[in-house]
Amino acid sequence: MTDETRTLFERIGGAESVASLVDAFYGRVLSDPELRPFFENSSVDHLRAIQKEFFAAALDGPVMHSDLDLAHIHQGMGITRAHFSRFVHHLIRVLEQAEMIRPGDAMDVIHRISTYVDDVTGRAGSSGD
Q: Which of 6, 45, 88, 121 sees the fewest Cβ atoms within 10 Å?
């Protein structure tokens, strides 16, 4: 199988790699004083499980549940584009440290995740910033 025929999920190492990335990623996010308050009343284990599912779906991997509605999950949380940018910044740092992921694939991951900014910030369907 060539890189052209493999999914992004497969190219970055599949479920094992996604699990490792999510664990490292949440280590950073939960240590960020501006992002931590969004997770104070949440089970970290549940968050990690949901993120693994989300990343798999976003990267064309296997989807265990197809009912992830990001807009609904994040509704009313007050997440801004600045918060989302911090979140993505942590993801970039984790991907940079993941030696098994090629830079082009890492940028593809960032691009895929960034397409969800409007759903996470409550701007989905809006006409402006």
A: 45
Maximum Cα–Cα distance across the chain = 44
Whether 35 contacts 88, CB under 8 Å: no
Residue 93 near residue 29 (C-beta atoms within 8 A): no
Residue whose structure tokens are 């759903």: 119
Looking at 75-116, list the stretches that DSSP marks H as alpha helix, in order from N- to C-terminal side: 81-97, 103-114
Q: Which helix (H) or strand (E) holds 72?
A: helix 70-74
Contact 52, 19 (CB under 8 A): yes
Residue 5 has what pLDDT?
84
| pLDDT band at residue 125 under the 50/70/90 scheme | low
